[in-house]
Design brief:
By secondary structure, the chain is mainly β. The chain has a six-stranded antiparallel barrel.
Amino acid sequence: MEGQGGDLVTPDIDKRQHRRARLITEVKCEAMNRDEVLVTRDVSVGGLFLTTRKPFPLNSDVALAFSLGPGQPSISCSGKVVYSMQGLGMGIEFSGLKEETRLSLEKFVDEGV
């Protein structure tokens, strides 16, 4: 997004409901008959951001699989694209997280902040 004068407009981080922790890892992402391996830069209990030049459109349903680190169990969950910017990436909001997964994410963020 560009503001006046060509400046980039960044998403309003004050609107975020959850603390985030840095996480750079591969994420298997499936949506719209595309199966891709993308990279995340951060994660929260509510979702994550994926770097990609060709993000899925807003409100796309996605299936995700990733790990919080070496030796950690794989997390498989679903989500929805809530932020999408061509050339930059997309924000995914988790949906229907299992309690065990939510607790693992909460612990990871608390330790990483």
